[in-house]
Amino acid sequence: MKRRKWLSGLVCMTMATSFLAGCTPSNGDDANGGAAPAEPAATDATTGTAATEQVAGNAEGSEGTINLWAFTDEVPKMVDKFVETHPDFHYQVKSTIIATTDGAYQPALDQALQAGGADAPDMYCAEAAFVLKYTQGDAWQYACPYADLGIDVDAEVKAADIAQYTVDIGTNPDGQLVGLGYQATGGAFIYRRSIAKDVFGTDDPEKIAEIIGSGSQSWDKFFEAAETLKGKGYGIISGDGDLWHAVENSSDKGWIVDDKLVIDPKREAFLDLSKQLKDNGYHNDTQDWQDAWFADMKGEGEKQIFGFFGPAWLINYTLAPNCGGEKVGEGTYGDWAVCAPPVGFFWGGTWVLANKNSEKKEAVGQIIDWITLNTEEDGLQYMWANGTLNGEGGTKDCVASGTVMSKSDGSLEFLGGQNMFDAFVPANSYANGKNLTQYDESINQIWRDQVRQYTAGEKDRDTAIADFKSTVADKLAIDAAE
Amino acid sequence: MKVDTIDQKKKGGIVLKVVIYIICILLAILSIFPFWIMMVNATRSTTEIQQHAVSLIPSGFLKNNFAVLTGKSFNPLVGFMNSIIISVGSTTLSIYFSTLTAYALVVYDWKLRNAFFKMIVAIMMIPAQITMIGFYQMCYKLGLTNNLLMLILPAIASPMTVFFMRQYLVAAFPFEIVQSARIDGAGEFRIFNQMCLPIMKPAIATQAIFAFVSSWNNLFTPLVLLTDKKNYTMPIMVSLLRGDIYKTEYGSIYLGLTLTVLPLIVMYLILSRYIIEGVAMGSVKG
Amino acid sequence: MKKKKLVKYGKYGYFFSIPFIVAFLFFSLYPIIYTFVIAFTDLKGLGTELNFLDEPFANFKSIFANKTFLRALGNTFFIWICNFIPQIGLALLLTAWFTDKRFKVKGAGVFKILFYMPNIITAATIAILFKALFDYPMSPVNDIMVSLGVFEKPVEMLQNKMMAKGLVSFIQFWMWYGYTMVILISGVLGIDPEIFEAAKVDGANGVQTFFKITIPNIRSILLFTLVTSLIGGLNMFDIPQLFLLGGPDNATLTTSVFIYQLAFQGSHLYARAAAASIIMFILIAVLSAGMFYIMRDRDAEKIKKEIKEAERQKGEEA
User: Fold this and answer.
1) Statement to judge: residues B102 and B224 lie in one domain
2) Domain count, chain B
3) Domain of A454, in residue numbers
4) Do residues A202 and A196 make contact, with C-beta atoms less than 8 angstroms apart?
5) How many C-alpha atoms does B8 have within 13 Å on its Cβ side?
6) Contacts of A477 in chain C (CB under 8 A)
């Protein structure tokens, strides 16, 4: 008897659940289309409660729903803010968030773009690792030029003084601008003041810049400095991964030229730089995002590490939380400064695009303009730069617009009071947006793997290069030039 | 002499028993280890985890992590409900219909029986990754995304479960009871529901656990198909936490993982009763 | 009145298979056909149009000429064999210990439950955990080895190809031995206890009982274990992809990871990936057929006889 109950219970449960499941989507549709969403428009984004509602909008007299696809809640929260501060904007925004970490964002977005229809994205976000695919690569046809959204592109880009590399990346093969970011991710050298004083007798960013050969487009001075640092028992960087982003972005050519794989001499030199770092003991031989790398931010690695290469977000989200303190005097907090790197580069970033097939181009244009080009104090970038998007005292970050940064205060206690924008505005202009391809993520992974094999002594230099070429050919069907 | 051998046998028995216990305890520690690390990390701050990813000692950031978790579009209740609907639905369908199909394959003699069995085994062998492209395409073209049924109904055709149930029936199904039930005038469907299902309990329990675990942990398909926040499952929510690559909150990710696994453990402990005790087939006969 | 009608039960076989067939046709047929079709096209990138190749088997040829694929194939077999043999061995041993009443292992229930637990936790979590354990230059394993004096200084263990392969095998073994054990135990529980009683009366010892009674009686379950493990092993994906992304230097690249990387990363070579999938499918099918052949027994005939018997008796009654 007991047995039968157990089974029949399960069967009942299934029927009930499948019934429920069958109903859910249709209920959902009603809620979206109807005039009365379950929750009023996001009124208070700072608490996070309203922001978690998927539909934000000024429901009264709604003119429709804008579908926004993103891979974090960052842009959706910005859009909530836009809706909240623009009572005359009569659209609702429905956000779809799919993380990139498990590789599902692109397949889902591609299917949604191809399928079209009412549920297709009107607006979508792309991360630096794959943005090229959507602005210049396989999916560029879906991206709507900003000009068609009612944006006066040339004038606004100039007025906002947008970092050139973000414009280059966001320009489609026809030369039209289809994507821009809000954040600027130009990289600088972020170093420890106390070590600078101990070894070089100064912690002045301009002097240090000179010592490491900032802007020289060569690594010679940097390695001289590494030798000096070694003499006092310090490492110049934590691991070779820190160097890679700078090397990658400084090359003259991207990985692919005329459909053939090309190893730019500057990228090939990474093999030697990496080996040199290891053989001479200039670093702690860590890998980025692993325990030992984070330990170096606190100064608790094998030897003290002088600095890291990175953009502003690395300071805010990685260095600061891992420095071992929360105010000056604790851990390495306040012991840092920023100066220009030997070669310009950028690392990461988010671009915002619009769907060519969207029927709400003008409304989408208003949001995109507010996020990417507006330089006013109530525009997104001003709030982002000054850390006021979610109220006073938020994280200050670099933004795409030089105009906005010039009227913002980027001084951080973490940097001993230095205004980080002084270093990052030029850094953004050094960064190069022209040597990228949509295959970079895969090719970089294969390249770094082979470099690691070489420096670990598992194979020689020529074999590493040959294996790199053959693996790229096998996995991506891109043959090496020559 | 005889006493000696008995003594030796006893000694041998004791040595063997000690070996058994040592191995079992070692394996048990290995089994608990990742859960312990995960739960400990759920109480640690992101910085602590970044500095030392593995620690055995809990810290005091549980509340903090929970605040971050719920502040980041992680809604445990919604996720739990969706995960439960999908997992219970697909597990039940998979178990019931797989047993039914296996019963058809074993108890009846029909012309296409062997061909059908071969087909089922062949379906099982098709590598999953590529066929997913066609499945997504179908779902998006037919507008069936954000429909939980698309993650439940396909479970009716679960080749691996059918295969297991068939093998189990072949090994141990007492055909006599079918005969006697038929003599008593029971219908075929009733014989299946009232005779076969109870007998299959140990097999059903094991397969239910496997089906439930894999459905609960299934990430990629739901991730691509369920794009609407109100349909998110627990693993999708954890995946979203990990998606913030510039500012990854590891503490809350581990808390999310822990919350995801807890219902699974409960479900497993409930069903495992049948694995431990088992209901031998013979008992039904008498 | 005798033998007036011989009841035909065969039709129920068709009836009871209908739900499976309908669900299969509706949900799986299109994706499978689509896969087979695109293997003969040049589909890649974001393309949707299917252009059939002039040379139909060009994709297959390019896969056979692809050294990385062949290497992945070798890795897949290596990793599978290295984890499957210890896995089935340990599972059988534990099954013998836990089902033999003579051992009376105290806490057997708790052990049985615990051993399956690694299978509950998601592969991603396990991958992260093992990466952290064996990391370089700072990690628990390195710290222990250095303090024990085994290593002079931290070693970059995960750059060593054999080490990486071995670790993937170990993780697979550790995640799945409990699963295999649970399956085998459920098979043993299905055996009529009277058989064991009879063996006991006949004076069979534990080892004899296990090999002469238990193993033959769970043969069909063993076949299931072998075939599903073969399929699972040759389609191994999660751990190799999540743990080291198939590296270092493609040492843990399995065919599934390779297929995934072909189709979902880089150039999105769907057509080639589909061709590789079909090659794997054929390979698995051939090997499974071999297993069915080796493990074949009189099951089929036995069942047939029993069904006939059942129908005949029913007919007689009527």
Assistant:
1) yes
2) 2
3) 188-346+408-476
4) yes
5) 5
6) 44, 267, 269, 272
Residues A454 and C106: their CA atoms lie apart, in Å, by: 53
CA distance B272 to chain A (A): 14
Q: How confident is the model at residue B1 (pLDDT cuts 50, 70, 90)?
A: very low
d(CA A11, CA A18): 11
pLDDT tens-digit map of A356-414: 999 999 999 999 999 999 999 999 999 999 988 887 778 899 999 999 999 998 999 99
- The CA angle A345-A346-A351, to the nearest 5 degrees, is 150
**For B148, which of A24, A104, A322 is closest by C-beta distance?**
A24
pLDDT single digits (tens) C56-71: 999 999 999 999 999 9
pLDDT of A33 strictly over 50: no
Mean pLDDT is highest, among A24-28, A232-236, C260-264, for A232-236
Answer yes or no: is pLDDT of B95 > 60.
yes
Query: Residue A27 domain-assigned?
Result: no
Amino acid identity, residue A366?
Q
Tokens read off for C211: 């090999």
ipTM of the modeled complex: 0.87
Q: Where are the domains of chain C?
A: 10-317
How far apart CA A178 and CA A156 sit, in angstroms, is 14
A309: helix, strand or coil: strand
Give the CATH number of the domain where residue A320 resides.
3.40.190.10
Structure tokens of C179?
């699963």
Range of the domain at B10: 2-61
Tokens of A249: 């972005």
> Are both B39 and B87 inside the same structural domain?
no
Phi–psi pair at A308, nearest 5 degrees: -130, 150
Are both B47 and B75 inside the same structural domain? no
Are A325 and A397 in a shared domain? no
- Distance (Å, rounded) from C-alpha A111 to C-alpha B140? 6
- Using CB atoms, which residue from C23, C24, C186 is nearest to B203? C186
In terms of domains, do A324 and A368 share one? Answer: no
CA angle C104, C110, C113 (to 5 degrees): 120
| Residue labelled with tokens 């507010």 | A370
- Together in a domain, A148 and A277: no
What is the pLDDT averaged over residues B175-186? Answer: 87
Contact A168, A406 (CB under 8 A): no
| Cα gap B231→B146, rounded to integer Å | 7
| CA distance between the termini of chain A | 77
* Predicted confidence band of residue A35 (pLDDT cuts 50, 70, 90): very low
**Residue A32: is its pLDDT beyond 50?**
no
Residue with tokens 């005097």: A329
Residues B54 and B84 in one domain: no
Place of tokens 């904007």: A89
Mark whether A384 and A467 lie in a shared domain.
Answer: no
Report CA torsion sign: C100, C105, C109, C111. Answer: negative
Architecture of domain C10-317: Orthogonal Bundle (1.10)
Separation of alpha carbons A160 and C39, rounded Å: 49
Window 37-66 of B: residues touching A by CB (8 A cutoff) are: 46-47, 50-53
- Eight-class DSSP state of C205: -
The fraction of chain A above a pLDDT of 70, given in percent, is 87
Chain B CB contacts of C11 under 8 Å are 110
- Both structure tokens of B30: 């290995």
From B94, B164, B223, B211, select the one nearest C24 (Cα to Cα).
Answer: B94
